[in-house]
Description:
Layout lengths: L9 H8 L34 E7 L3 H4 L3 H11 L4 E7 L3 H10 L17 E5 L6 H11 L14 E5 L15 E2 L5 H16 L5 H10 L10 E5 L5 E6 L10 E2 L27 E4 L1 E2 L9 H5 L4 E2 L2 H15 L3 E5 L9 H11 L6 E3 L10 H8 L7 E6 L3 H6 L6 H13 L4 E8 L6 H22 L5 E8 L16 H17 L7 E5 L2 H11 L6 H9 L13 H13 L7 H5 L14 E2 L4 H12 L17 H5 L21 H10 L1
Parallel strand pairs: 1-2, 1-3, 3-4, 4-5, 8-18, 9-12, 12-13, 14-15, 15-16, 16-17
Antiparallel strand pairs: 6-7, 10-11
InterPro entries: CHP03960_rSAM, Elp3/MiaA/NifB-like_rSAM, Radical_SAM_N2, rSAM, rSAM_horseshoe, rSAM_sf
Protein name: Radical SAM family uncharacterized protein
Pfam families: Radical_SAM, Radical_SAM_N2
Amino acid sequence: MVGMSGESLFPALEPxxxxxxxxxxxxxxxxxxxxxxxxxxxxxxxxxxxxxRWALMYPDAYEVGVPNQGVMxxxxxxxxxxxALAERTYAVWPDMEAQLRDAGLPQFTVDGHRAxxxxxxxxLSFSTELGYTNMLTALDLAxxxxxxxxxxxxxxxxxxxxxxxxxxxxxxxFIDAAxxxxxxxxxxxxxxxxxxxxxxxxxxxxxxxxLRLARTGGVYVPAFYDVDYLPDGRIRRVAPASDAxxxxxxxxxxxxxxxxxxxxxxxxxxxxxxxxxxxMSVEIFRGCTRGCRFCQAGMITRPVRERSIxxxxxxxxxxxxxxxxxxxxxLSLSSADHSEIAEITKGLADRYEGTQTGLSLPSTRVDAxxxxxxNELTRxxxxxxxxxxxxxxxxxxxxxxxxxxSEDDLIQTVAAAYGAGWRQVKLYFxxxxxxxxxxxxxxxxxxxxxxxxxxxxxxxxxxxxxxxxIGGFVPKPHTPFQWASQLGVEETDARLLKLREAxxxxxxxxxxxxxxxxxxxxxxxEGLLSRGDRRVGRVIEAVWRDGGRFDxxxxxxxxxxxxxxxxAEFAAMPWDVDLAWYTTRExxxxxxxxxxxxxxxxDKDWLWEDWQDALDETEVDDCRWTxxxxxxxxxxxxxxxxxxxTGKTLLPLTVLGTGREALVEAHQH
Length: 669
C-alpha cells in the first residue's frame, strides 16, 4: 500500500489478448463502468494521498461475475464517494493465467487495467465456497503473499464478504478480515477508517489499521482470535487474543434497514461479452422468514425488508434508461412474497405495455403463484418456462425441511400454468436431506408423472414437458441443519441412479420428463469448505498448489485431487480428523462450531430447537404473518420486519414512452 503507481497495464496486456479464449472479458469499457483518476481524493498538505482504493473481485469467470448484484452495488456505492475509487477484477481462465505468468504481468482490474497489488483494499465476494482456489490464484498473480501473516504495509488489505463469509475460518490464513451481512454501509465505514489511517501516515502499520477495523465490532480479523482444540479434534473455544485489546468476543452482521435509501445499482453494468444473465435486475426485498431449514440465505439475511412499490418503479425506470436491456428480473429469495407483488407486476406491465420489456421472477414458490401474476409477467415479453422448487419429493421430507407445500398444491399450480398456455415447467429438488430415504427421493418420479398427466389433461396436448433438476444438499452454517450429517458421495449417486431409472421406466412419461442432476462429488467438497475450521485452509492451499482452479465448473473440478490432498493434509495433523469428520459426521448440541463467534443474530438455542422440530417432522409458520418465534434476530440486531402494503401505485410515465425525451433533455442540461 506504499508508493502506489496505478498505471494502466493495457499496453503490455494487449498483445496477450489474441492468444487467449474470449479476450473481450479482459478489455473492460462496459456501459456504465467507471475509471476514476488514481488520485481522485487529491493530496494533503504533506503530500499524503487522500484516496482510498478498492479492487473488488467476484472470484469466478467474467461471465458469471459481471452480473453479480453484490459487487455491482459496492462498485457504485464506493465510486460515488469523491475520496474513493473502486475497480473490478475477475478470475482469469487458465490460458490467461499462463500468459500472465510468462509475461511477468500481475492480476489486473478490467476497468483501469491497474495492478491489483497497487490498491489499498482487495475485497472478494464469495457466494459459494468453491471460489476459494480462485482467490489464491488472484493473490499469487497479484504478488500478494498468500498468508496474511506474511503481508506488509505495502500490500492491500484482503477482505472477504458474501454468504460464504459467515464462516470464513477455512480461509482465515489467507484473508485479513471478513465482513458479514449487507455491504453497503460496511464498505463506507471501512473506507473511512482506512482513509483516516492513510492520511495520518499509516501509524502502527498494518496491525494498527486492522485493530481499528476489528474494534468496530462489525469486522472480523481472524489473526486477533485464538482457537483451542480438544484432544478429539473438536474446538474447545475461540477467544480474542490477549495482545489484541478492545477486540470483541463476537462480531456482528451488518443489516441495511431502509432499502429505498439505497437504490443501487442506479447504473447497472452492461457487459460487452455474453454473461449468464442478460437482463437488468432490481432487488425487491431482502431477507426471508419462510424458515426453510436448509436455506442459509434465508436464515442469515433476516429480517425481511421490502423496497416500496414506488422505489422499485423508479429503479426499473432509471435502470432501463441506463442500460437498454429488454428484461427486468424482480429479485429476492422469494419474490412472489412481496406484500404488493400483484400491484408491482401489474403496474410495471401497464407502464411498459407494447415496448418489448419483459418481467421475470427467478423462482416462484408453489403456494405464491397464481395465473394473474403469471399473465402480468408475460404480457409484454416472451413466455419462458416456469420454475418451482418443492425441494423435497415426499410430504414427509417437506415437513422435515419446513417447505410447507402439499402435493395437491403443486398439482393445482401446474394445472393452472399448463391450462393458461405454458408448455414447460421446471421442478427443483434436493437429494441427501436429513432423515431422507430412497422412498422419499423416488416420490419425485411419481410427482413428475402426475405433473405431465395433469398438463396433458388440462391443455389437451401431448407436447407438455417437465424438467426435474436435482441438487445435492450441503449443510450450511447458521441454519438448523448445521449439526446434520451430510450424505456420502456413493449413497447420493446410488439414490440418484434409482430415481433416474424410475423416471425412465414408465414409457408413457419418460420422454416428456427431463432429468438433470449434480453427482455427489462437488457437494462433499463444498460441505468440507462450508463447515470447515481453520485447519481446512491447509487442504485448500494444497489443492491450489496441485493445480486446482475453477472448482465450481465441472470441466475443471477434480474430485480425485481434493481427496488426495485432503487425505495427505489431515494425516499430517495431530488430531484424528478426516474428510468424513467434517462432512458425514453429525454434531451434538454442545459442540463449539467454527462460526459461533460470528453473530448472524440467530439464537443458537432457537436453531437447535428448530433442528429437533425437523427430526419430529414439525412445521413452523412464517413469522411475517404470525407472532414472533423468537429466533433472536430482531431484538439482537436492533432491527424489525419491514413490509407494506404502502397503498401507492405506479405512475404510467416510462422511459420507453413519454419519459425518454424528458430523460434525454435532463441529461443535456
